[in-house]
Specification:
Two copies of one chain form a homodimer. The first copy, chain A, is mainly α. Chain A contains twelve helices and four strands, in the order αααββααββααααααα. In chain A, the strands form two sheets. In chain A, strands 1-2 form a two-stranded antiparallel ribbon. A two-stranded antiparallel sheet of chain A has the order 3-4. Chains A and B meet through α3, α4, α6 and α9 of A and α3, α4, α6 and α9 of B. Chain A binds a DNA duplex through α3.
DNA sequence: AACGCCAACTGGTCATACCACTTGACCTGC
DNA sequence: GCAGGTCAAGTGGTATGACCAGTTGGCGTT
């Protein structure tokens, strides 16, 4: 087995994860109050600053409402959590959540073509050369993990060219959720990143400054793997349901 | 003037904002190291735990890289920041950033129709009734602020029906950026939220379970205000440029 | 019964001490 | 001279205890 970097989990990290689990898995309903910081510190066997740091981080993502002098209440994460929570929802307790994964694929398919269209509209000649270089690199390797990285680089360049802060931030959030599982997903994504030709067509459309063609080409890059993965996820889901009922 | 709730800014909040400003405005380049926690505490005249809390919160949003024993370095927020940073980018130092606002409008126009299509595909009969009720409420008031709130509720219901975690989280993030400025934006959005008819067409398409029609109808709801606002922002931008050069 | 005060509890902040880790200079042995 | 190990200094990580500041609810007064 290949050597892995040791994971060093700090105390606040641990507390954060535990409280997050309670909130996300419904152990504490929205509107309920959390135990006081002192009490939590006592129960968890850690110092109050450690608890405090975890709760403040959670408050920053709008999952808690902390009131000076009053109690700390849990908010409805489905209504208030931002996209930065995606990594924690995508893989919970070490398992991939099929419904979340499906929605990631759907979002990718919905947004990618729009970004490509914007890039076609705004990208200059330098962009085309850069994209071609990335596709060349993608085509030059046989390793699926490497190919995925090149594909990520490719989309990174497209997003840059789209010159949209919002899409850039969305891309960053999605990448943060995706990258940790990149190696595990290599077989599943092999179909997509193996199609260098589709990327070349997209590159040509972007280089030509043709938004509509670029949109369609991006769809052709993303759709096949999206469809087959969603089908696979559905099958997995049915299977899990059967196991539960047996 | 109407009484306003007092804003209570905690010490870590203040530190967070200051450091964030340095990072976002380029006062500290990516890769550079931050002063040590003790040093920062001394310079800012606050305690180390306060500094620590601010830095940890910043690290959670991937804007800093904190290494135990080593130094804390600044990361490139353009590459790593998630969508949750949007509120702070949209309005910086009290001013609306035109480029960011434009990208919000673009993203809204690109994503809204896709979400509507998903909702049409997945929504049941209960959804149609709920949406109609919201449009009725929207049509029943003359106050632009109230109308905006109803429009938000409308989209909230659509996003719910789309049954997609990712789009839900994106919507939450966008709303978090949008709501604080809701009152200021009332005149700008009046054009859109005044068109109850367009919402009714969209509602009918969703109720009919027709994704393609819903997509087109959503586009018609969002596009007019999007186009005119982007035009207004461009004019504003040119004007600012002229002021700079004069 | 209504009001106002106050004690108890909550989060907010600070100072300080010590632990754990990284770094780089220095020193050793070859 | 240089590869190796050693160690001190500096960094972030954690804990403790104290006190400030705001909220809440009960209890007494009116």
């Amino acid at each position: 087995m290949p050597l892995q970097p040791v994971v060093r989990r700090s105390v606040p990290d641990e507390v954060f994860d535990q409280v997050l689990g309670e909130v996300v898995d419904g152990g504490i309903e929205p509107g309920e109050t959390l135990p006081s910081e002192r009490r939590l510190a006592e129960v968890l066997g850690v110092s109050r600053p450690a608890v405090r740091e975890a709760l403040q981080r959670m408050a920053q993502t709008r999952l808690l409402e902390v009131r000076h002098g009053g109690s700390t209440t849990v908010r409805d994460f489905k209504r208030f959590a931002g996209l930065d929570l995606l990594p924690q929802l995508l893989v919970r307790r070490g398992n991939l959540d099929a419904a979340v994964a499906r929605s990631v694929l759907e979002a990718r398919l919905a947004i990618g073509p729009s970004v490509a269209a914007l890039a076609a509209d705004r990208g200059g000649p330098a962009l085309a050369a850069a994209l071609e270089g990335t596709v060349d690199a993608l085509a030059a390797t046989d390793d699926d993990v490497e190919r995925q990285r090149h594909a990520l680089t490719y989309w990174d360049q497209v997003v840059d060219a789209a010159d949209s802060v919002v899409f850039r931030l969305m891309f960053n959030s999605l990448r943060a959720a995706y990258e940790p599982a990149l190696e595990a997903l290599a077989p599943a994504m092999a179909e997509e990143v193996g199609q260098a030709g589709a990327y070349r067509v997209l590159t040509a459309a972007i280089a030509a400054g043709d938004p509509d063609t670029a949109r369609a080409a991006a769809d052709r890059v993303l759709r096949p793997a999206t469809d087959s993965l969603i089908a696979a996820l559905s099958a997995l889901d049915l299977q899990n349901d059967e196991e539960k009922h047996s």
